[in-house]
Design a protein that fits this description.
Elements (H helix, E strand, L loop, with lengths): L7 H11 L2 H8 L19 H9 L8 H24 L25 H7 L1
């Protein structure tokens, strides 16, 4: 067993660790900034579904930072679904990758039967 007494600086560091960030912020007078819009311009893509998802990003402008994740995940999920839908849409059949060779011409049919050739000799 030790009779050593901890130094006062070590005690204050331990107290800060035990106190949550709210207590430290209140003691220091620090207050987080109020959420403000970033006003990032978004150009239309021409795809209404994608444009709607990108417009949803503006919802994050009015949320605290910890609320951004939900908006970003929702937008990401919607954009991923839109891309998947593009791949699944029916369309014209894909061209075959194997080159097609022309069908060999059929030989012309003789005007006379083969037996008539034998008679000529």
């Amino acid at each position: 067993m030790s009779d050593a007494v901890p130094e006062p600086a070590a005690q204050s560091a331990a107290q800060e660790t035990e106190a949550g960030p709210e207590v430290r912020e209140a003691e220091s007078g620090y207050e987080p900034a109020v959420p403000a819009p970033l006003d990032v311009p978004r150009a239309p893509t021409g795809n209404a579904e994608v444009d709607a998802r990108l417009a949803r990003l503006a919802d994050a402008d009015h949320l605290a930072t910890d609320g951004h994740v939900e908006v970003y995940e929702d937008v990401h999920r919607g954009l991923r679904d839109a891309l998947t839908a593009l791949d699944a849409r029916p369309g014209p059949p894909a061209p075959s990758t194997a080159p097609t060779s022309p069908t060999p011409p059929t030989p012309p049919t003789p005007l006379t039967s083969p037996s008539s050739y034998e008679d000529r000799s």
